[in-house]
Amino acid sequence: MTRRVVPPTALVRIDHYSAVHLAAATARSIAQESGLPGAMPDRAAVLASELASNLDKHAKDGALYIQSLPLGVGLEIQAADRGPGMPELQRCLTDGYTTTGTLGAGLGAVSRIASDFTIRTQVGVGTLVCARLALPGQPQHLCQGAGLVCLPAEGEADCGDAAALAEHDGVRTAIVIDGLGHGPHAAEAAQTALRAFDAAADRPLPGIITALHRALRHTRGAAVGLLRPRPDQAEYCGIGNVRALALSPDGVHHRLTGQPGVVGWKMPSPQSRMIPLTPGTTAVLHSDGINHQWAQAPSPFQLRLPPPLLATAVAHGHRSGRDDATVLAVKPHLGPR
């Protein structure tokens, strides 16, 4: 079984040129913590510096989201802004192209250095970028089809949300945990639940929640949502206010919330529900630190985003700063077993 417990996302707001240095230092540190060897942490710093500099020069309300990969060994840097967007994307990806009189190496350099590079832009809406550095030699599918952002409440050092992905026999299991409240005690509950998930991730989903319930009895408890996507449907099992839905280019489908209760305190017998998945559909879990109204009428641009950019777009545009906030977007594992 492959499992990956991802620490909270580092958010670096690019509201001044000095944030470029902070972004580079943060990326280097997380790359080292993620197990990237040799010169790869320095490459991560270059990626962050170029993306942050691009946001500082060209965008408004820009930010970088930096973290370990949801699956596999490596790091990802997500850039998000609220415009103006790029009307000539291919020219912007060419080394030497500039609109500000600078060298113009930014996005072209990022696309060359990154192991995987994805960008989407719309004029008047903004631009989203995902640049990943993955440890060479690991299966490529581990880095595909999943996106995650997990942020503490503003002003909090500890994150009361947590999330993880596991893969067993070609099947992925995703979990989002929302420890009651926020701060250190919520974080303790969330981390206790993650450890229990790590030991039980290959069980049936109701069995996983039952295992978490036992582990959380001496904590303040948590809301928990589990998703197990397959090519034609996703199984969902949840207790508390962790929402699940399916997103396709045609719209949002099958919005679900967990059964009433608190994992670790009082909960009903957990029951699974099925969400049909048509081709091209992404399954999403999110905690209540994300305003659920984002899914009422997402734009066609948002509906077509790949999972990493979808998670970032939802967090960047619809997070409540007063609470911990997590979005996990995942497609079934379709790679080689």
TrEMBL record:
**InterPro entries (UniProt xref):** HATPase_C_sf (IPR036890), PPM-type-like_dom_sf (IPR036457), PPM-type_phosphatase-like_dom (IPR001932), Ptase_RsbX (IPR039248)
Report the domain of life of the source organism: Bacteria
Residues forming the PPM-type phosphatase domain are: 144-332
Instruction: Indicate what this protein is called per its UniProt record.
Output: SpoIIE family protein phosphatase
